[in-house]
């Protein structure tokens, strides 16, 4: 995966900023046919599959989109736990490969446990919505930054949008490192 390769090769630190992608999606989900009514989704799905493959990411046969709000709150909590950053990869796989309803608390607890996190704590976080304000703040920041899609890579007012091949992300990182070097000299 491109991000893991970057982290292994460069002093990159990833900080997740959550984004309201289709926040109106009902908890039960919505079929992609319904979401993109009137459009031929086959080319869109093929394009996504190609982009994911180019980035070294698995991609399944998604049929639905699900509201990601609770998953984002779970991710925000997981980032506060030792080793919790792995939740993002597990959530990715659940959503994009396994077509899991990531707005369902039972599914999210299972995802947390699969990531090595305490399922009881995850359930408490989800039911109490204890990370709601943090995700609200992320949504506000994403609007301030002008983020319109995922993933978006942002640093020093520079942006790379969309699933990108490793070489593109590497150019982004090396450019940022060059800028930082110029600032310190």
Report the principal-axis shape. Answer: globular
> What's the CATH class label?
Alpha Beta
The CATH homologous superfamily is termed: Glutaredoxin
What count of helical segments does DSSP give?
Answer: 9
CATH T-level topology: Glutaredoxin
Class inferred from helices and paired strands? mainly alpha
Strand content: 5-15%
Q: Calculate the terminal CA-CA distance, rounded to whole Å.
A: 33 Å
The percent of residues in helical segments reads 40-55%
Q: What string gives the helices and strands in order?
A: HEHHEHHHHHEEH
Kindly report the average pLDDT value: 89
Task: Describe the structure in your own words.
The chain is built from 9 helices and 4 strands; from the N terminus they run H-E-H-H-E-H-H-H-H-H-E-E-H. With 185 residues, it is mainly α. The chain starts with a helix and ends with a helix. The chain has one domain: Glutaredoxin (3-Layer(aba) Sandwich). Helix 5 crosses helix 6 (105-114) and helix 6 packs antiparallel against helix 7 (119-128). The protein is globular.
Provide the fold topology.
Layout: H1 2-9, E1 30-31, H2 32-35, H3 41-54, E2 64-65, H4 69-78, H5 87-97, H6 105-114, H7 119-128, H8 132-145, E3 152-155, E4 158-161, H9 166-184
Antiparallel strand pairs: 1-2, 3-4
């Amino acid at each position: 995966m491109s991000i893991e390769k970057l982290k292994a090769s460069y002093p990159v630190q990833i900080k997740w900023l959550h984004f309201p992608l289709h926040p109106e999606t009902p908890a039960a989900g919505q079929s992609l046919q319904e979401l993109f009514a009137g459009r031929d989704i086959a080319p869109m799905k093929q394009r996504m599959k190609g982009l994911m493959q180019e980035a070294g990411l698995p991609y399944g046969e998604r049929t639905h989109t699900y509201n990601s709000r609770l998953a984002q709150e779970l991710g925000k909590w997981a980032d506060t736990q030792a080793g919790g950053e792995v939740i993002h990869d597990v959530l990715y796989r659940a959503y994009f490969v396994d077509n899991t309803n990531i707005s369902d608390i039972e599914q999210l607890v299972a995802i947390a446990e699969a990531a090595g996190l305490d399922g009881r704590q995850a359930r408490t976080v989800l039911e109490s919505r204890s990370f709601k304000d943090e995700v609200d703040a992320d949504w506000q920041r994403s609007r301030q930054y002008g983020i319109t899609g995922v993933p978006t890579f942002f640093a020093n007012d520079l942006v790379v949008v969309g699933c990108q091949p490793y070489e593109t992300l590497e150019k982004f990182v090396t450019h940022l490192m060059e800028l930082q070097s110029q600032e310190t000299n």
